[in-house]
Design a protein that fits this description.
Elements lengths: L4 E9 L2 E10 L7 E5 L10 H7 L4 E5 L18 H15 L4 E6 L1 H10 L6 E7 L7 H8 L7 E2 L2 H11 L8 H10 L1 E3 L5 E3 L6 H6 L7 H6 L4 E6 L7 H9 L5 E5 L11 H11 L3
Parallel strand pairs: 3-4, 3-5, 5-6, 6-10, 10-11
Antiparallel strand pairs: 1-2, 2-4, 7-9, 8-9
Length: about 280
Amino acid sequence: MLQPRQHFVRSLSPHGFHRVAYREWGHPASSRTLVCVHGLTRNGRDFDVLAAALADRFRVLCPDMPGRGDSEWLKDPNDYVFPTYLTALTAVLAHADVDEVSWLGTSMGGLLGMVLAAQPATPIKRLVVNDIGPAIEPAALLRIAGYVGLDPVFDNFKALEAHVREVSAPFGALSDAQWTALAESTARQTTDGRWKLKYDPGIAVPFRSTASGGDLWAIWDAIRCPTLLLRGSESDLLSVQTAAAMRTRGPKPRLIEFAGVGHAPMLFNPEQIAPVVAFLGAA
């Protein structure tokens, strides 16, 4: 079962119900489930390569957060906040009928995993945090705020791909095929034949109003499950100092850094996938 199955579930925000999409890889009766959650402007297709590599050993669930990918846009952009996302993720877990999961979260998905893992009776038994931490560097937030929500329009797909390559340059030295796949998974064609990004520009509204990043050290300190921390060696979002402090507090994770990568490692290549597979016990 190396092709994903698409599912939809209804979740609730302060202004009504909305549809949340997720892709399921692997056998639905597998005894092990991995949930993979993407970053701010991305979607669950980011984990296609990783999910395909694990599908013979894991059931892998890859949701699109509200307003991204194939999930419905919210009626009020102010609802693009963590309570809405956590409710959506809880709905996905309930729809998938799983009680225990491993969790891999990139950037925003890592923060959501941290919050869930810190809760009493959490379903998360193993946690992979990809290039995010309890303290976020302000310079990185300013960089992201410079492009998120601008809603550019492109005359052709090649122009959209060039934009993706530019704003996502910190992902590292991806191949042409990998860049094209990233662009394809983030693209939607309009009725006039032009191209736009596949997320609601309204996600920028609460992001810009809370762009200080906050302090989640109390959340981190409450996590008790085995945890693996991934970092791009050139990351401007997760600093060397924050990563070092994370190793001594809370779940005290093992830290793995990937050379030549900023924010965030995309887990497309064997050298990035291998430590995740080993940590999850799927080697």
